[in-house]
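Dear Dr. H.,

I hope your travels went smoothly. While you were away I took the liberty of generating a structure for the chain from your last submission, since the lab meeting agenda had it listed for discussion. I wanted you to have the full record in hand beforehand rather than looking at slides cold. The sequence, exactly as received, is reproduced here:
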Amino acid sequence: IYTAGAIRTGTMTWILDRLAEAAQKGKTVFGMMPHGIVEQFTGKHSTFPGFMVDNYTDVSNQLMNAGLKIMFTGHFHATDITEQQSGNQTLYDIETGSIIVYPCAYRLITYIQDSALIITTKHITNVNYSGIPPDQTFPQYAESLTRIAADTLFTTTLMTGKQITYNDTAWH
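The corresponding predicted structure, in token form, is as follows:
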């Protein structure tokens, strides 16, 4: 599915200015955006281009060089943490999927100033929704819907090479 995302030049300038101000004041900044800025696997940007921000290598380098260490993302709906390093700098892309996509994860973040970021991943195991078949738990139901979506996405994208749109999917 191609769902492009980009950071405009003026927006990047504004972000870099805010990061510079934060650095002068000794503040830690966490970023948040839908699209990934560090690949979770080699070739993600070419296989699934709409899930990475346009010019992700340049974007991640600019942000990392400006002092950003943590970016929360989630557009690919995976639960993963990946990093990019350059010299003594590291940028972490902390991706968390939607709570309705199996395994229905959410994160609790504890920041210990200048020391640690503790990330706890939890899973929703029960919801009050009458649409779940009586023979399935919420995680089973969510997994079945995720499999339908993944089958459509991967079969179409990998087997035919066609980038599908939202309207082409079985889950819309």
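Two observations you may find useful: The first helix runs from residue 9 to 24. The chain has a mean pLDDT of 85.

With kind regards,
E. W.
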